[in-house]
Design a protein that fits this description.
Blueprint (H helix, E strand, L loop, with lengths): L6 H22 L34 H15 L1 H12 L3 H27 L5 H14 L9 H6 L3 H26 L2 H31 L1 H13 L11 H10 L5 H15 L10 H49 L1
Length: about 325
């Protein structure tokens, strides 16, 4: 069995790949301006400047759209933590450092644009949003922050980071795109299409660097892949009241277990040929087999979710029926 490479060796081995993918990214990316996607003519002053403070009746977005937009924005707000994580694991030298800073600059646009849109259109309570932003950023984020001992240290490795971000960027792209559709509002949809396009290019970078990692050190990469998928959480899980919001978003079809499996996990595993490769040995080979078991478990989760979702929708429909009946009687 080949000896594991050190983090420094991996950084050195992968730097030419990072440089090539950075250059490709710079050719493919399209710069855009957040202010171009904000309906400024809809804006008006708040109370502090002699205007009117927010009222729930001013929002034109559904509960699902509001919840998803806020969740997406609060996830983007933790950018300082994400920058710190990848800077520590990728380094700020050479092509790695150029990518870290470029990625951070592009990601920063997303939070700017989403917050401006939500505030100008009065789609959500701006006071509550600011309170949530402060709370979310105070909590910070690290993929291993809820783990202890050796497991936490493992979660801060180069491979753990680049593989985790591959899935996370793709999941974020899907979530933003589906949120745009859920808004049923053309400006929001256009804005989130633009954000999703950024996330897609970021995903491609991390996916292809990870793929090169599997060729350089397959067993090490498999350790990280197994660890990431067995413990996967979206960065937004630190948002206050996350569980309730995740249910609203899932039932609303923005991001649910089926989307996670079919549109995020399986496409990446297929691209990396995880179940076709024959270069995993020992414990890494066992972990690859366990990923097959995990796929079956995720499929079961999808089926259970669909059943629970259907029951929830039926209950909500009956409750709406009763409310409408009461209104008819009172009229």
């Amino acid at each position: 069995m080949a000896k594991d490479l050190t983090e420094v060796q991996l950084l050195t081995e992968l730097e030419p790949v990072v440089e090539a993918n950075l250059n490709r990214h710079l050719r493919m990316r399209k710069d855009w301006n957040p202010h171009d996607y904000i309906p400024w003519s809809d804006g008006k002053n708040f109370y502090a400047l002699g205007g009117q403070d927010w009222d729930p009746e001013q929002s034109k977005l559904s509960e699902v759209a509001q919840t998803a937009m806020v969740q997406n924005l609060l996830t983007e707000d933790n950018l300082p933590s994400y920058h710190r994580e990848i800077a520590m694991n990728f380094s700020l030298d050479g092509a790695w450092g150029q990518w870290v800073n470029r990625w951070t600059a592009e990601e920063n646009r997303h939070g700017i644009a989403l917050r401006d849109y939500l505030t100008v259109t009065r789609a959500i309570d701006p006071v509550e949003l600011e309170e949530l932003r402060v709370e979310q950023m105070t909590r910070g984020f690290s993929p291993g922050q809820n783990q202890q001992g050796e497991d936490k240290l493992f979660a801060r490795s180069l491979f753990d980071s680049v593989i985790y971000v591959t899935f996370q960027e793709l999941a974020t792209r899907v979530s933003h795109r589906n949120t745009g559709k859920a808004c049923s509002e053309p400006v929001a949809d256009q804005l989130l299409q633009r954000v999703s396009a950024d996330e897609n290019l970021h995903m491609i970078f991390y996916r292809d660097v990870s793929e090169a990692g599997f060729d350089i050190a397959p067993d090490q990469a498999m350790y990280s892949l197994h660890h990431v998928l067995r413990n996967f959480k979206m960065p937004g899980y630190t948002v206050p009241d996350f569980r309730r919001k995740a249910v609203v978003i899932a039932v609303g079809g923005v991001y649910d277990p089926r989307i996670h499996l079919d549109d995020v996990v399986l496409p990446v595993l297929k691209k990396w040929r995880i179940f076709e490769r024959e270069d995993f040995t020992g414990e890494a080979a066992r972990m690859r087999d366990d990923l097959g078991v995990l796929m079956e478990e995720l499929e079961e989760t999808c089926e259970k979710f669909e059943t629970a979702k259907q029951r929830r929708l039926e209950r909500e429909a009956k409750m709406a029926e009763k409310r409408n009946a009461k209104k008819s009687v009172s009229v």
